[in-house]
Write a structure and sequence with these properties.
By secondary structure, the protein is α/β, with parallel strands linked by helices. The protein has two domains: 137 residues, Rossmann fold (3-Layer(aba) Sandwich); 105 residues, DNA polymerase, domain 1, CATH 1.10.150. The protein is built from 13 helices and five strands. Strands 3-2-1-4-5 form a five-stranded parallel beta sheet, with helices on both faces. Helix 7 crosses helix 8 and helix 7 crosses helix 10. The two termini are 37 Å apart.
């Protein structure tokens, strides 16, 4: 999660040390968010920075930072997976470094009206770009079996079938339209997690990833970044959960000419199965 004004970017020192921005260089922050990484990069060197975010709110917030660094920060609304075309429109064909802070931003999580978090009651939305199919659309239309697959594959939720069954039963009575109601349905359907995390965590993660095609975006973004990097350029990716982690590690291994061995975080490699018979009952 990245940001400024109380929303601190994760691993800022490590990101700057790895990126090593230099005077005269050209860089991309593919996940602008609150501008935490962008401000630090611009403050570390007399460089040019392009910043992408699909969230129009993030682009609007960036105006103040752009004013602090006139002519050096260029804000682009769109998906970082489309960075090749977005930068081509700016006449940019090569970069000295790319930073990707993957996942949802703290600004999105902290705003109830965006519908990303079960911590607040709000519309069941979760759209980063404020356009397209919402989490409410998915929850209320997806067949039960497909919903279970989604929760398991993208949320690593081993009680996926039980939760999907409960959601379908609830939506027959009334469409599931708020984060609060969905969280209640999920918590009631699955046993308390022994780790102590909220029972709705994995289901909300799965829906958010599906709504925004986050894993596909990571794949596209990494491939595009590699094509844009000039000789000696650096790619820095901050991954939060195991699904992103697996994609990034395999991409880095392939790019470095190493075999793409299974990540220790890969549920398939660990032989995990969807609900065991007791959990599915």
């Amino acid at each position: 999660m990245s940001g400024g004004g109380g929303h601190l970017p994760v691993m800022l020192a490590e990101v700057l040390d790895t990126l090593a921005p230099r005077d005269g260089g050209a860089y991309l922050d593919g996940t602008f968010g609150g501008g935490g990484y962008a401000g630090a990069i611009l403050g570390a060197a007399r460089c040019t920075l392009f910043a992408i975010d699909r969230d129009p709110d993030a682009i609007a917030r960036g105006a103040a930072l752009a004013a602090r660094f006139p002519g050096r920060l260029h804000l682009l609304e769109g998906r970082f997976g489309d960075m090749l075309s977005l930068l081509a429109d700016q006449g940019v064909a090569a970069l000295d470094g790319v930073v990707l802070d993957l996942g949802v931003s703290s600004f999105q999580l902290d705003e109830p009206g965006r519908g990303f978090s079960f911590r607040f009651n709000g519309p069941l939305d979760m759209r980063m770009a404020k356009a397209g199919k919402s989490a409410q659309d998915i929850v209320n239309t997806l067949p039960e079996s497909e919903l279970a697959d989604l929760l398991f594959d993208l949320g690593e939720e081993r009680h996926a079938r039980r939760i999907a069954r409960a959601i379908v039963a609830a939506r027959r009575e009334e469409p599931v339209a708020t984060t609060g109601r969905l969280a209640e349905i999920v918590r009631a359907a699955a046993p308390r997690d022994p780790s102590g995390i909220d029972g709705a965590t994995r289901s909300f993660q799965a829906l958010r990833i599906a709504v925004n095609d986050e894993l596909g975006e990571v794949e596209r973004g990494l491939q595009a970044a590699a094509r844009l990097l000039a000789p000696g350029g650096r790619l820095v990716a901050v991954a939060f959960h195991s699904l992103e982690d697996r994609i990034v590690k395999r991409f880095m291994a392939r790019s470095a000419g190493r075999g793409a061995g299974a990540s220790r975080h890969d549920p398939a490699a660990l032989g995990r199965r969807r609900d065991d018979p007791a959990a599915a009952a």
